[in-house]
């Protein structure tokens, strides 16, 4: 541990749209925010290709480009943006403490948690290959479904997210094939029934994904295997969607912050406040329902305003 802790008014942990938006508002309110970018500067959007649904970009923008612009906007108002990873916090006392890479110690008057969530992937080498190329693998139907309009897509997963996303895709795509690894859905009955009753969704139960097939850097199909019969086949498609859950990046806050059983932080409804005074949450770390860049940015704004009001009352 370092000998002297650095004192800051507002510590922002994470650099997705929620963190940068919180930084823009906090900096303009003269809170001199210090933002630590974390392991994946720019967050989940840096793994997205084209963003067409963020208001203000009529021609669309790539995810990485948008994050560069958000960072530049936060810097314009003198946000202190640092590369580094918050490895530990202690919110048990009156001083909010955080450690960067277990060494540098920070004492903050306010903390904004904007650490996001990570989509889970199957982990197949071919899946990761096409994901990195941006050519046909996605974990967000609302973000990327539009690129597959009138085409055939495959989605893996059997929870509420998979059902919601399959239904969303069915309104855009010619055909959606849903791969369910067991012989039943995990999703609520109403969500599963909606998928079952949609004519252009085909559901394959007991089906495992073996490989994503492609040509010239673009996906052309998915090789699957029936776990009961052993039958293998290739399903032609141009898009492969993964909807097997998300993991909020909130592990280090667990001893202090109230969360649900998965790890999503519980905010006081209608605010960004957590159970700890002075600690606020923004973005996907508290949101398992919307998970959009625009909603993350909106809650980033809320967190900065809540932090500013908290400081005003305290001071
Ligand atoms: P869940 O954890 O509920 O479901 C994940 C699904 O992915 C399961 O069906 C699981 O299969 C499957 N899966 C996991 N790993 C693999 C794998 N390696 N190969 C194939 N399939 C796999 O996650 P969700 O994101 O769907 O939902 C998270 C929470 O959010 C839930 O509480 C849900 O109810 C809620 N939610 C609610 C919505 C709404 O009400 N509108 C919308 C979206 C989410 P298996 O069943 O075999 O374990």
Main attributes of the structure:
FAD/NAD(P)-binding domain; 7 helices; 315 residues; 25% helix; 5-stranded parallel sheet; alpha/beta; 7-stranded mixed sheet; binds NADPH dihydro-nicotinamide-adenine-dinucleotide phosphate; 19 strands; single chain
Structure characterization notes:
Helices cover 25% and strands 29% of the residues. β15 and β16 (232-236) form a beta hairpin. Strands 1, 2, 5, 6, 7, 8 and 19 form a 7-stranded mixed sheet that branches. Strands 10-17-11-12-13 form a 5-stranded parallel sheet. A 3-stranded antiparallel sheet has the order 14-15-16. α1 runs parallel beside α2 (63-76), α1 (17-28) packs parallel to α7 (293-314) and α5 (160-170) runs parallel beside α6 (189-196). The longest helix is centred in the C-terminal third of the chain and has 22 residues, at 293-314. The protein starts with 5 loop residues before the first strand and ends with a helix. With 315 residues, the chain is α/β, with parallel strands linked by helices. It folds into 2 domains: 6-118 and 246-314, FAD/NAD(P)-binding domain (3-Layer(bba) Sandwich), CATH 3.50.50; 121-242, FAD/NAD(P)-binding domain. The mean pLDDT is 94. Bound molecules: NADPH dihydro-nicotinamide-adenine-dinucleotide phosphate.
List the helices and strands and how they pair.
Blueprint: E1 6-13, H1 17-28, E2 34-36, E3 50-51, E4 61-62, H2 63-76, E5 80-82, E6 86-90, E7 96-100, E8 104-113, E9 117-119, H3 125-133, E10 137-138, H4 141-144, E11 152-156, H5 160-170, E12 175-179, H6 189-196, E13 201-204, E14 207-215, E15 218-226, E16 232-236, E17 239-242, E18 246-248, E19 279-281, H7 293-314
Parallel strand pairs: 1-2, 1-8, 2-5, 8-19, 10-17, 11-12, 11-17, 12-13
Antiparallel strand pairs: 3-4, 6-7, 7-8, 9-18, 14-15, 15-16
Helix pairs in contact: 1-2, 1-7, 5-6
This protein binds NADPH dihydro-nicotinamide-adenine-dinucleotide phosphate.
């Amino acid at each position: 541990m370092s000998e002297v802790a650095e004192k800051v008014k507002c510590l922002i942990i994470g650099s997705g749209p929620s963190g940068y938006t919180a930084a823009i508002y906090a900096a303009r309110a003269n809170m001199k925010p210090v933002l630590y970018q974390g392991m994946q500067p720019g967050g989940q959007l840096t793994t997205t290709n084209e963003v067409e649904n963020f208001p203000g970009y009529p021609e669309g923008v790539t995810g990485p480009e948008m994050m560069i612009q958000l960072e530049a906007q936060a810097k314009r108002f003198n946000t202190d943006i640092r590369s580094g990873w918050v490895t530990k916090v202690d919110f048990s006392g009156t001083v909010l403490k955080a450690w960067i890479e277990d060494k540098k110690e920070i004492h903050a008057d306010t903390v904004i948690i904007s650490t996001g969530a990570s989509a889970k992937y199957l982990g197949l080498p071919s899946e990761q290959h096409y994901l990195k190329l941006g050519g046909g693998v996605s974990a967000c139907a609302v973000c990327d479904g539009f690129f597959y309009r009138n085409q055939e897509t495959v989605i893996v997963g059997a929870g509420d997210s998979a059902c919601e996303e399959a239904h969303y895709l069915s309104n855009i795509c010619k055909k959606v094939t849903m791969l369910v690894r067991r012989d039943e859905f995990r999703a609520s009955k109403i969500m599963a029934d909606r998928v079952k009753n949609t004519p252009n969704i085909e559901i394959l139960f007991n089906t495992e994904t073996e490989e994503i097939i492609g040509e010239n850097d673009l996906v052309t199909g998915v090789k699957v295997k029936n776990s009961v019969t052993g039958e293998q086949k290739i399903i032609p498609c141009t898009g492969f969607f993964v909807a097997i859950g998300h993991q909020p990046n909130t592990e280090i806050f667990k001893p202090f912050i109230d969360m649900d059983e998965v790890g999503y932080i519980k905010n006081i409804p209608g605010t960004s406040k957590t159970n700890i005074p002075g600690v606020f949450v923004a973005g996907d770390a508290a949101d398992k329902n919307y998970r959009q860049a625009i909603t993350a940015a909106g809650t980033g704004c809320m967190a900065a305003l809540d932090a500013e009001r908290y400081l005003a009352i305290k001071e």
